[in-house]
Amino acid sequence: MPDKPVPTPPAGARDSSRCALLVLVGLVLTYLPLPWRALAVVAGLAAIFFGIRAMTAQIRTKQSFSAAWTGLGVMLAAWLIVVTGIQTVFTGQWSQVEECLKGANTRVAEADCRKQLGDGAGSGLLGLFGE
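Given the sequence above, the corresponding structure tokens read:
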């Protein structure tokens, strides 16, 4: 009985999977405390690299639907890089925001926290992230 040939995956499938996995890893890394949270930027950069490589292979072979989904993953990775990068650059101010909001378990406590930080350096960060 002849051996059946092993089907090859579509062009860009492995790189697209790597991109998706790295976006998920980056998302998980954003839940770490601030110095370690910067690793999400590294995961995001790697996800963008593999995502662009996958998209070029998918576009070359006319897989536009797959390329669109991979493009969404690249956009999510870019968003992770921007948000985590801002939090890393403004480490001191962001730590104040996190500490203040950590204890705020009611709307009144959140409002008091916002009022406290309204005069300080963290006020711009609160508005930037819609908190």
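Residues 11-89 form one domain. Try to locate this feature in the token string yourself.
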